[in-house]
């Protein structure tokens, strides 16, 4: 399971301080040394760790103690609150268009889980919000990408718009949105092309798809298992394209958690959803406070 090592270490560390009736500056310092190591070992960006430790220390030393909590519990609460803030604070919901359809562009590197997540997101919108999404197959370069999305659509009994692989993604996006308006789809989810590495050609094309489709959201799909690489990928895509949010996939694997814990702080992009498996229902809206509770036990 994701975060297992980190969760174990943090829980052990906090356990030591939780019961204390009196917390000295030295206690806090010692605890923070251990928290710092645990975060670094979980592959959290070192600048993020540094800031985090600074904030928790400031708030823990010389704090006003709430009557309802022991000083030890109070420190644990500070760690929890700061971890929640680090993960994005409030849950970030999908921005919807006043005049449907709401357009969501899915971008990311090949293998991150883009096509799968496109299907999962459509399934989520239909099941939880009773929406009528149209899936758009605009990845014309990866062999079998169109077929894969059609298969996903077939499984979910949702329509997939495709014009084959000889029409440009820009044209596909344009026609798909026109069709969505005609047929009263309230969401259009565009599965775009990914490459193994970020390159100029890919970005140029994605920018053109963005211009024509004027999306309400541009979600970067990143594989949580790639750790700091996921953060770097998010920074590049954001610079070039202006993202609105991130979907972290494969959080069901044994990722150390570095990506999840660094991405908001480094890029200021909210994590909107997390992928928790290969199945179509394995997508969850991301709740920073719940994730924080899960990690801290
Ligand atoms: P794309 O190239 O970005 O479109 O990636 P795909 O959607 O084809 O996904 C690549 C692989 O990752 C597939 O085998 C998916 O089943 C798998 N995958 C996607 N999301 C998740 C997830 O949240 N958890 C797990 N375990 N596997 C995932």
Automatic annotation (TrEMBL):
Ribosomal protein among keywords: no
Enzyme class: hydrolase
Compartments reported by the entry: Cytoplasm
Annotated signal peptide: none
Reaction catalyzed: GTP + H2O = GDP + phosphate + H(+)
Keyword Ribonucleoprotein tagged: yes
SRP54-type proteins GTP-binding domain: residues covered: 270-283
GO molecular function: 7S RNA binding; GTP binding; GTPase activity
EC assignment: 3.6.5.4
Keywords: Cytoplasm, GTP-binding, Hydrolase, Nucleotide-binding, Ribonucleoprotein, RNA-binding, Signal recognition particle
Binding site for GTP: 108-115, 191-195, 249-252
A Gene Ontology biological process term: SRP-dependent cotranslational protein targeting to membrane
GO CC terms: signal recognition particle
Domain remarks in the Swiss-Prot or TrEMBL record: Composed of three domains: the N-terminal N domain, which is responsible for interactions with the ribosome, the central G domain, which binds GTP, and the C-terminal M domain, which binds the RNA and the signal sequence of the RNC.
Protein family (similarity comment): Belongs to the GTP-binding SRP family. SRP54 subfamily.
Subunit structure: Part of the signal recognition particle protein translocation system, which is composed of SRP and FtsY.
Stated role: Involved in targeting and insertion of nascent membrane proteins into the cytoplasmic membrane. Binds to the hydrophobic signal sequence of the ribosome-nascent chain (RNC) as it emerges from the ribosomes. The SRP-RNC complex is then targeted to the cytoplasmic membrane where it interacts with the SRP receptor FtsY. Interaction with FtsY leads to the transfer of the RNC complex to the Sec translocase for insertion into the membrane, the hydrolysis of GTP by both Ffh and FtsY, and the dissociation of the SRP-FtsY complex into the individual components.
Entry protein name: Signal recognition particle protein
